[in-house]
Every structure is written in C-alpha cells, then in structure tokens.
Amino acid sequence: MKVYSKTILGLILSIVFLPLIAFAQSPGIPHKFYGTVTMENGVAPNGLTVEAEIGGEIFGTSITNNDGKYGYSDLMIVTDPRGNNNGEEIKFYVSGIETEETAIFENGASSEINLTVPGEAGIITNNEDETIENKTVAVSSNQSASIEMGDSLNVIVSSAKSTNATINRVEKLENNFYDGATAVMSGNEVLNGFEIDIDGENLVISASMKYDDSNIDEDTIKPYKFDSASNSWVEITSNVNVDKSSNEVTFEIKIASTPYVLFAEPVSTETSSPSGGGGGGGSFTVQDDNEEEDESERADIDGDGNVGLFDFNQLMVQWGNYGSDYEADINEDNEVDILDFNSLMVYWTE
Prior knowledge:
Elements: H1 2-24, E1 28-39, E2 42-43, E3 49-54, E4 57-63, E5 69-70, E6 76-80, E7 89-94, E8 97-104, E9 110-112, E10 115-116, E11 123-126, E12 132-139, E13 145-149, E14 153-159, E15 163-172, E16 189-199, E17 203-210, E18 222-227, E19 232-235, E20 241-243, E21 248-253, E22 257-264, E23 270-272, E24 283-285, H2 289-299, H3 309-317, H4 338-346
Parallel strand pairs: 1-9, 1-10, 11-13
Antiparallel strand pairs: 1-2, 1-5, 1-6, 3-4, 3-7, 7-8, 12-15, 13-14, 14-17, 15-16, 16-22, 17-21, 18-19, 18-22, 20-21, 23-24
C-alpha cells in the first residue's frame, strides 16, 4: 500500500507542477530597440555592428545604416529565450566598443536609445607633425578607417568583420631618431619615416608614404621596418608598390608596432663618356667645384684652418658611427668610415 500511495502522490505532484515548470522555462516577449549611433568624429558610418549584451551574453544585434541609424530597416530585437531577462541591465556595443548608454530589459517594450561611442570611424585627419595616441577606431567589412598625417602618410585599417582597432601611437620620426642601432643604412638616405603602433584582431593594415625624389635613385626605394630583436632594419616585401608618378610607396603591415622608414640610394654621379673623338671608352665622374670646396672644408673637422692630426684624432673618435650628426662624416653618407679617411688624406695639409 505504501508503494502504491507514493506512486499516486508522485503523479499528482507531476500534474500540478509540470505546467509551472514549463511556464518558467518558456521564452519571454522580446524588447525592441532603435535609434542613432554617434562617434567622436560624427555619425557612425554604415555597416557597423550594434550588439545588446546582458550578463556578458549577446541577445540582439543590428547594423548601422542610413546616417548612423540602427534598428529601423534592420530591426534590433533583444530576445528573452529563457524568460529571465526582464528587469536586467542591457549594455550596448558598437564594433566591440562599449557605448555610454544602458537600458533595462522590459518584455514587449519598444525603446529609442541613441548611442554614443567613445571612438572614431571613417577618416581621421591630422597634421604631419602631430602625434596620434590612445585612440579607438571602428572598422567593418565595408567601412575602413583611414589615418591621414597631412600629405606624408596615410594608414588604412580594414577588417573582414565588424571590430575595432586601438591606435597606440602614430608619429613622424625626427632626425635624432636615426642614431645607434636605428641609424640610416649605409649608402642610403631617409625619405620618410613614422612610428606606427596599432592593436586589434582580424585587422589588415596598409601604409602609403610620400617621398621627395630630389637627388635619389627611385629604383632603389624600399620600405623597411626596425626589428628590435635583431637591432636591424628589415626590408618589407609584402604587397609593396612604388608609384613614381605620385611619389608614393604603399606596403602592407603585418604587425603595426615598430618604426617604418623609406630608404633609397642617392643618384650616382658617374656617367658614361661618349665614344669616338680620340676620347676612348670608359667613364668619368662629374663633380661640381662647389661640392669639392665644401668637402675640403668638412675635412677640417676641428675648424682650425688645417687638415691634420687633430682632425685625424676626431675621425678615430667617431669611427664606425652611423647618422647625420657626426662632424667626421666628411662625405656626408651618414657613416664615418674608410671613405671619410680617404677624403681626409686627399685634403691633408700638415
């Protein structure tokens, strides 16, 4: 009898409480949201993903369109699949950037929430000598971010999905940067250089640098990045394009966290002599008289009017250094070496 009674009691409890359990687990009515998205530099561009998050879980998404609007043509329905979202706080994100607004979930409600994003999108314009640091930019599959540093540099940040990038630092390299391990490569000149440090996931980054083609061999222009592990300049070979008509070099950056520089060799002063006329073949060097006079003055390193032992001592002190700030760099190739010693011997007066 006891077994029978327990069985009957169990059936009764099941019949009474089963509807209540089913009701508790049934989904609640969604909450609809719509409004506008404004970035720090204006309305959000089309194609950015807007997400509604409750307790770290995403319950609704939309896409910006039509002058930064969301939730209109592309409805933003925030769901309540387990029937327990009512009264919970909703956080809104745009391309992964948390907005300044929140809302409370209400079953069956329809709310206008205009979102403000602490980040930028589209084109970010600065002067060449300005520094960009600690900025967040939103990107998507159909909306890249463009960082313009005057006419000197343009960095394009894009992605196959809606995400964001952090611009840690973008800054033009000054002349005093090219010293020690980061000295100019031997036989080359600096055309342009920037520190470019950008973080983010699933990013594709490309840089376009302008250059001045005066007295340089454009066929030798190459972009380099500085490798801190080896303390050396490493040539960039990924998707490099040198446009000689616009004086611009474009290249792809895999990891944007290092100095990037354009190097090129100066124009050669050697030209072929014409054949015939008893002159014979071969070549000759055309050297301007003013250039020769300037070099003789530079050979007088200590400026005492003579090229002698004191100048030789100064040359030995600076021997092997790279950069543009050394008086013993007589031939001005940004390296104190045997060529400068040869020039010293040519103009020796003691």
